[in-house]
Prior knowledge:
Number of strands: 0
Largest sheet: none
Radius of gyration: 21 Å
Mean pLDDT: 89
Number of domains: 2
Oligomer: single chain
Shape: globular
Amino acid sequence: MENVEEVKELLVVSASPHIRAKKNTSVAMRVVIGALVPAFVYATYLFGARVLIITVLSILSAVGFEALMQKMLGRKITVTDGSAVLTGLLLAFNLPPGVPWWIPVAGSGFAIVFAKQLFGGLGYNFINPALAGRAFLMASWPSLMTKAWLAPVGGTLSGIDGITAATPLSLLKNPQNYGDPQIIISRLNDFDAMRNAFFGNIGGCIGETSVLLLLLGGLFLLFLKIVDYRIIVGYLGSFALLAWLLPTEGSVLFHLFSGGLILGAFFMATDWVTSPVTTKGRWVFGIGCGVITMIIRVWGGYPEGVSYSILLMNVFTPLIDRATRERVFGQMPKKGVKK
């Protein structure tokens, strides 16, 4: 009888595809969190203690809601695996630093309860929980999510001297609201603006500041093979190509360095659960994210499109996997097709 119980403990029944890897989920989560720490520290320096408060509230809320839901649903409490901490951290990175304290709590609650636990928990959610939480907050309190910006230490919200009332993407979207459109667009694309955007001396969401630190963290994950380069290259490559081809006043570098593109491409589009498992599918997923992001930036009413592009592609992930699945080993060729 004891042997039977031991066998049951070892037997895991699940739907395909079946992928075996040496990476431990908990360790991988902690590595991703560690890769985000430099950008978090720098954002705290730029915007002050509010960043620390918002981030701590977001993480504690995510962990608390996860434990509560697992308790209510009769599941094993697994808050120590790091997934709830990462969700809370990523949600905080997608918030303006000036939002009220209850915004990260509400966003984390929606992310964990409705986008994760009600679908079965880690490994079963079909959309990125942190981005789902951000989308919920955008739909519920759009004024707070688009106006609670803070100017960074020693700089301006726009990254341009003399223009303090808008983020770079907002300026590009409606330059006529802030002065002479030609002068503003010219200054957005000059060397000083690009330097401020790359090093992080601009306003925006907590995780949209330093492109340099986000790149270093993302490259660290690539080096450890925690994330797949196909999604990242497909995303940034298609985005850059469209930024060059489409009628936009911003340069390719401006679009690459502005908003949450680097955060989204390296840390959220590459989410293991909500991205395709096939190699071809990951290319399709990344390219789709890049195309949708650029379309929203150019023709949408909202200046940024990273969050919604990833969420939309999350929904198409099962279809992408089905359309790009590899040939099964030992499968006979279709009739009429030569071997």
